[in-house]
Structure formats: C-alpha cells, structure tokens
Write a structure and sequence with these properties.
Helices cover 37% and strands 35% of the residues. The protein is an alpha+beta fold. The protein has a single domain, classed as Alpha-Beta Plaits (2-Layer Sandwich). It has a four-stranded antiparallel β-sheet with strand order 2-3-1-4. It is globular and about 40 Å long.
Length: 82
C-alpha cells in the first residue's frame, strides 16, 4: 500500500534550521521514496513499510542529535487514487 506522510519538525532551540535541513537531507537519501519540501512541511511518499522504516530511523537519529524537538505527522493512504 502506498502512503503519504506530511511531517514537520520543530526543534526547541534558537538555531532551528540546521536540524530541519539535516532530517530532510537524510529522508532524501532513502531510495524509493518521494520527498517534497515546502515552507511549512515535508511530504514523504512511498510504500508503507519503506516510509515507516525511513521515518523510524530518521526520527530516532534526530532525537539522538538534538536536545529537544517535536515532530508533527499526518498520514494519508492511497495518495493519488480516487
């Protein structure tokens, strides 16, 4: 099943841009995923298991790297199908 996840990171730090850029760069390194970024959020599109594996890895890495942060996510199944 294909899914789309809308994800936003809010690092609780004055220097918030580098952690956001880092997680986007790491998500872009996962083969088989579409990653779209705009001013408000990033959309990750792909097979459910691939998306969830990538998010699990990259959210964990981000939480290991920054002292405090919040991820907000919304998930949609079967994007592009009517």
């Amino acid at each position: 099943m294909k899914v789309a996840v809308d994800i936003s990171l809010y690092p609780l730090d004055a220097d918030f841009i580098p952690p956001i850029k880092d997680v986007i760069d790491r998500l872009n390194s996962h083969a088989g995923l579409e990653v779209w970024t705009n001013a408000m959020s990033t959309q990750v599109i792909g097979d459910f298991d691939d998306v969830m594996d990538a998010l699990k890895k990259e959210i964990g890495t981000t939480f290991d790297k920054i002292p405090k942060g919040v991820f907000i996510m919304k998930m949609f199944n079967n994007p592009g199908q009517h």
